[in-house]
């Protein structure tokens, strides 16, 4: 039984727009065992870099690739880069005294791309109570809006 090796690439890069979900990168593995056995089927896991559980990785049964997905939308303004450590191992355990470890690892750098988000009012909704027939030009309310795109120059009108 041969341990699965992530291809010679031990660093993968992915780009994802903030607010989106889905597969962002496929990790390839080289395992020379019979793919129709547990010795040839890969099991992927995220071992570091995902404290908010925003990602998941599943094995594609057709080609044994690891499909890394965003499952909770990411926020560019909160965190622009994520570095994940991915482990792959055989579904079946290695035979005893094989002479090498049972798994391989790779790093995935995920870059979050900014999208233009509209401003939001605070509080939302705003309730205003005024007497009927107040004079024209009377103060009614003060509205506050902020734009979450703090790194872009914005103009709120």
From TrEMBL:
Tell me which SMART domains the record gives: CA (SM00112)
* Family matches, as InterPro entries: Cadherin (IPR039808), Cadherin-like_dom (IPR002126), Cadherin-like_sf (IPR015919)
Question: Subcellular location, in the record's words?
Answer: Cell membrane
Question: What is the designated name of this protein?
Answer: Cadherin domain-containing protein
Major location (coarse): membrane
Kindly list the GO CC terms recorded for this protein. Answer: adherens junction; catenin complex
GO molecular function (one): cadherin binding
Residue limits of the Cadherin domain?
A: 24-121
Q: Which domain of life is it from?
A: Eukaryota
State the Gene Ontology BP annotations.
adherens junction organization; calcium-dependent cell-cell adhesion via plasma membrane cell adhesion molecules; cell migration; cell morphogenesis; cell-cell adhesion mediated by cadherin; cell-cell junction assembly; homophilic cell adhesion via plasma membrane adhesion molecules
Q: Which UniProt key words apply to this protein?
A: Calcium, Cell adhesion, Cell membrane, Cleavage on pair of basic residues, Glycoprotein, Membrane, Repeat
Q: Which Pfam families match?
A: Cadherin (PF00028)
């Amino acid at each position: 039984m041969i341990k699965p090796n992530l291809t010679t690439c031990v660093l993968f890069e992915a780009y994802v727009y903030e607010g989106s979900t889905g597969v962002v990168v496929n990790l390839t593995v080289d395992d020379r065992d019979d793919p129709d056995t547990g010795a040839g089927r890969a099991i992927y896991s995220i071992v570091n870099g995902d404290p908010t559980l925003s990602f998941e990785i599943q094995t594609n049964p057709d080609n044994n690739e690891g499909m890394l997905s965003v499952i909770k939308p990411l926020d560019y303004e909160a965190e622009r880069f994520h570095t994940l450590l991915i482990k792959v191992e055989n579904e079946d355990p290695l035979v005893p005294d094989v002479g090498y470890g049972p798994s391989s690892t790779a790093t995935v750098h995920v870059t979050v791309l900014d999208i233009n988000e509209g401003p939001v009012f605070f509080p939302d909704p705003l309730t205003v109570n005024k007497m009927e027939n107040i004079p024209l030009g009377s103060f009614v309310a003060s509205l506050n809006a902020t734009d979450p795109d703090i790194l872009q120059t914005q103009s709120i009108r």
